[in-house]
Amino acid sequence: MTVEEILVDIQDISRIYYLGSSELKALNNLSCKVGKGDFLVIAGPSGSGKTTLLNIIGCIDKPSSGRIIFERKDITDISLDKLNPLRLNHIGFIFQSFNLIPVLTAYENVELPLLFKGLGTREIRELAEKFLHRVGIADKMHQRPSSLSGGQRQRLSIARALAGNPTLIVADEPTANLDRKNAESIIELMRELNKELGVTVVIASHDQMVIEHASSRLFIQDGSKLIRHE
Amino acid sequence: MNESQIKGNRGHYGWRNRIKLLKLAYRNLFRNKRRSFFALLIAVSGCTALCIAIGYYRFSIYSLQELTIRNGFGGAGGSAHVQIMDRRMLEEQEDHALEFGMDSIERLETLISQDKEVAYVLPRIEFGGLISNGETSLPFKGYGIRVPEEMRLLAGMSEINPRLKLGEQLAPLNTNRQGIILGKGLAKALHAKTGDMLMMYGTNTEGAINGIDVELLGIMSTGVSETDRYYLLTRNENAEKLLNSHKTSILALMFKNREHLEDKIRRLRSFLETDSAGAKTVLLPWYQNAAFYLSIRDIFNIIFSFMGAIILVIVLLSCWNIMNMTTMERIREIGTLRAMGLSRRQINSIFVLEAFLIGLFGAIIGMALQWILARIITALHIIMPPVPGMSRPYTLQVYGMTLLHPLVASGIIAAITLSGLSSMMIIKRYTIVESLDHS
Questions:
Q1: What are the pLDDT digits (tens) for A114-168?
Q2: How far, in Å, are A18, A136, A159, B112, B413 from residue B251 at the CA level?
Q3: Which chain B residues are within 8 Å of A108, Cβ to Cβ?
Q4: CATH number of A49's domain
Q5: Does ipTM come in above 0.90?
Q6: Which chain A residues are closer than 8 Å to B17 by Cβ?
Q7: C-beta of residue B228 within 8 angstroms of C-beta of residue B184
Q8: Averaged pLDDT, B124-148
Q9: Mutate to test the interface with B, among A93, A114, A116 (most CBs of B within 10 A)
Q10: The domain containing residue A121 runs over which residues?
């Protein structure tokens, strides 16, 4: 992978959590690269550190040591608050429990982060409608999340993540709360969008079906990388 | 990726987007209806309580002003809107009665009456002396007045407070009989009753002692018990006879209303300066001769400001607590928004907007409620104890709408909006990952 092809370069990172006087090493001198347009699945058993790694890749957590390079820029020493614009403009998030705003309609949920991006009303409407159509819930546009099924909710959170035209999508166990059929359809949708839009997707999951869909896989255990399959 | 790409779009958003955020804040109010209801209840209660207090304050202040103008707190009577007197009255002490009195009163009155804003003029003579029942002689402070005008001045108080029918007590003087009205305390000390004949002594303008027989036509209370012990009222004609002079101490003057008083006084001064007698006079607006009113007003200002501050703090702290609970309930949502790249300030603005809406609705409902309550309280005709220095009780009134009411409502909105900042501290307490893991 050439330097130009790397989106996120994780260099020898460790993440230590302090619980009173004891410390817990969630990541241990781990290095990995996320290529542009990749569909990477971070796999591993529960407690292996895959969510911690995903959080660091998604710029919502900082490593205790090591360096992070995002699109050739070293962002290790930039505070999370100062990385707000980076996340707002370049990273989309998909969560296990959807994390949608219950008082907003599907359309408004997609619209909200776009409002904060400072886009014009027309542009926001076009983007929100386009992605709601793309994920197949345009007819549910004016419904609130509570009236949507689990699969529809996750589609909605995909639309929300994509509407801001991000470079990277990070998804933490996106299929964990879905039945098999919905899980497959969600992963297929994400894979399609990855190919169609060229957006890089990084998923943390221990679901075998998700792992099988990946273009590359990273297996970790006890905070250390075991193997990477391309 | 360069620096500007990291910074990216900094998240400026226009008014349309702000309206959408307001819509989000409005919808959030319905998430926990019970809590929002309590927050609203606090806002309504605070606004209503403050507005009623302000309504009562404004009534009290206005009544005190009118009482100063129409009744006074011990003296010839109300200060009226303006008092015209010889310039020397402000600079020197008179050696004998009417030394600095104004003559040419008719000419001055003619001059003043050219001003269409003037309603009526009240010439007054101030004098002192002894009043005797033949056995006991007591000092008095006397005032010669033009009765119909003074009655009219006092009667104006009834428009503000129907319980205070002040003009009627001067009615016995409105006769051609050579009589006086005594203050309650003075009449009691003289063991005098209405209809008794008394002897009134005074020093005339030449310094000689003079005395005239007078009939006690009435006994009255000025409202100030201290004043009642030396108070004497008579018609100007009787005072002139005793003092052997046609001079007048002051000309009190009432305009048709109190609006733009400074302008009216300025215009009147220009009228008077065209006359040789008028040029020697000075014009004193009512508030320059109202030490009692000013001291009570200052006390009221301190009391009501303190009370208002306490209510605002209670409202702020109560809503602060509610906003804390609201924020704690939505920690995961905050984590989601922060992960999406919204700054703490932007997220906090959603909570601040929620608090603002509670404040706004609370202030609107509170204003409406206080208006209704103010009308009910006023209609109940609650009798209040006399104000300090007064002996008459009065009927409680609460003004439903004054210029201060919108200010109070704004204060409530500001205090509750401020409580929205409480979320800022909670947002700061959690990292993004901790917020997302919060259950």
A1: 888 888 888 999 999 999 999 999 999 999 999 999 999 999 999 999 998 999 9
A2: 87, 89, 84, 10, 49
A3: 20, 24
A4: 3.40.50.300
A5: yes
A6: 115, 118, 121
A7: yes
A8: 92
A9: A116
A10: 35-62+79-225
* B340/A93 touch (CB, cutoff 8 Å), yes or no: yes
Partners of A220 in the β-ladder: A225
For residue B117, give every residue at least 6 positions away whose Cβ sits within 8 Å of its Cβ, in sequence order, or none: B255, B256, B264, B267
In three-state secondary structure terms, B5 is helix
Nearest CA in chain B to A116: B11
pLDDT at B64: 87
Residue A216, CA distances (Å) to A49, A205, A207 in order: 18, 13, 15
**Residue A100 phi/psi, 5° resolution?**
-90, 160
- CA-to-CA distance for B317 and B327, rounded, in angstroms? 15
DSSP structure string for A91-130: EEEE-TT----TTS-HHHHHHHHHHHHT--HHHHHHHHHH
Closest by CA to A114, choosing from A62, A159, A167, A72, is: A159
Specify the 3-state DSSP secondary structure of B421.
coil
Considering only alpha carbons, which residue of chain B is nearest residue A98? Answer: B336
Element housing B334 (H / E): helix B331-339
Residue A74 lies in a domain: no
| pLDDT (average), residues B394-418 | 92
Asked if residue A2 is part of any domain, the answer here is no
Residue B182 pairs with which residues in a beta bridge?
A: B219, B232
Instruction: Classify B394 as helix, strand or coil.
Output: strand
Q: Which residues contact A108 (CB under 8 A, 6 or more apart)?
A: A101, B20, B24
- Residue A16, in any domain of the structure: no
User: At which residue do the structure tokens 């497959």 appear?
Assistant: A184
Helices (H), A33-179: 50-57, 84-90, 106-117, 121-134, 150-163
- Answer yes or no: are the C-beta atoms of A155 and A137 closer than 8 Å: yes
Task: Compute the distance between CA of residue B429 and CA of residue B425 in angstroms, rounded to an integer.
Answer: 6
Place of tokens 């309280």: B377
* Nearest of A22, A18, A29 to residue A65 by alpha carbon: A29
Domain count, chain A: 1
Listed by start position, the domains of chain B span: 11-64+294-437, 80-286
Cβ neighbours around A212 below 10 Å, total: 10
Q: Which of residues 113-152 of A touch B (CB under 8 A)?
A: 113, 115-118, 120-121
**Of the ranges B8-22, B213-227, B252-266, which is most confident?**
B252-266
Q: How many Å apart are CA A25 and CA A47, to the nearest integer?
A: 11
Q: Which residues are CB-contacts of B376 (< 8 A; sequence separation ≥ 6)?
A: none
The 3-state DSSP class for residue B413 equals helix
